[in-house]
Amino acid sequence: DQQVKQNSPSLSVQEGRISILNCDYTNSMFDYFLWYKKYPAEGPTFLISISSIKDKNEDGRFTVFLNKSAKHLSLHIVPSQPGDSAVYFCAARASNYKLTFGKGTLLTVNP
Amino acid sequence: DGGITQSPKYLFRKEGQNVTLSCEQNLNHDAMYWYRQDPGQGLRLIYYSQIVNDFQKGDIAEGYSVSREKKESFPLTVTSAQKNPTAFYLCASSTPPGELFFGEGSRLTVL
């Protein structure tokens, strides 16, 4: 039973445009959400996070939005750059500090 | 330079053999984790340890074993009981409730 879902396996965007990656969750006990970026054959790197008490967090070109009532979060990248091409994982944490990951979305930013 | 070191990066195993993957961190993190990545499956938690000499099973612990004798080290043994061991294995650490920091990963192939 998937508790964190990334329903789009892939996304293709033109350089300079906005990339929007989506994530849905089912467990209402999740209180902290994170986005990781991963290149092939490397470990994931932390990108940005948001606590359940907030609805938006921004860091440079990256913004994460959280809609608790819909159990939905999204990552916006503006403007998108070719170097952003990677797999993006959404993750959620409950009080035991375990992270549950989605299956990832492959973002391709075309020059 | 602080970080997480996984070794070996590539490992080949014959069926029926046990293998041990090393994970060392010098970040002074209390918690350590092992995840497995398969194509299209995202990251799945194998085992985690929140403190020395203590560890808990994750979602897919069958066929794996761990130890946590030192704060810096969290080795993972893939036993012959693991039916599909070929995968990319990721070690991570954190100081809860902070984000996880990942190593570069180890790719295990069963011949």
Describe the structure.
The complex is a heterodimer of chains A (111) and B (111). Chain A is mainly β and 111 residues long. Chain A is built from no helices and 11 strands. In chain A, a hairpin with a 4-residue loop joins strand 7 (62-67) and strand 8 (72-77). Chain A is globular. Chain B is an all-beta fold. Chain B has strands at residues 4-7, 10-13, 19-25, 31-38, 42-51, 54-57, 64-66, 76-78, 87-94, 101-102, 106-110. At the A-B interface, strand 4, strand 5, strand 9 and strand 10 of A face strand 4, strand 5, strand 9 and strand 10 of B.
- Provide the gyration radius of chain A in Å: 13 Å
* SSE string of chain B: EEEEEEEEEEE
Label the overall shape of chain A.
globular
Please state the oligomeric state of the protein chains shown: heterodimer
Stretches of chain B where pLDDT falls below 50 for ≥5 residues?
none
Label the structural class of chain B.
mainly beta
The major beta sheet of chain B can be summarized as: 7 strands, mixed
Radius of gyration of chain B: 13 Å
Amino-to-carboxy terminus distance of chain B: 35 Å
Number of helices of chain B: 0
Query: What is the overall number of helices of chain A?
Result: 0
| Chain pair forming the biggest interface | A-B, 23 and 28 residues
What shape does the CA trace of chain B take?
globular
How much is the average pLDDT of chain B? Answer: 92
Write the layout of secondary structure elements.
The complex is a heterodimer of chains A (111) and B (111).
Chain A: E1 4-5, E2 10-14, E3 19-25, E4 32-38, E5 45-51, E6 56-59, E7 62-67, E8 72-77, E9 86-93, E10 99-101, E11 105-110
Parallel strand pairs in A: 2-11
Antiparallel strand pairs in A: 1-3, 3-8, 4-5, 4-9, 6-7, 7-8, 9-10, 9-11
Chain B: E1 4-7, E2 10-13, E3 19-25, E4 31-38, E5 42-51, E6 54-57, E7 64-66, E8 76-78, E9 87-94, E10 101-102, E11 106-110
Parallel strand pairs in B: 2-11
Antiparallel strand pairs in B: 1-3, 3-8, 4-5, 4-9, 5-6, 7-8, 9-10, 9-11
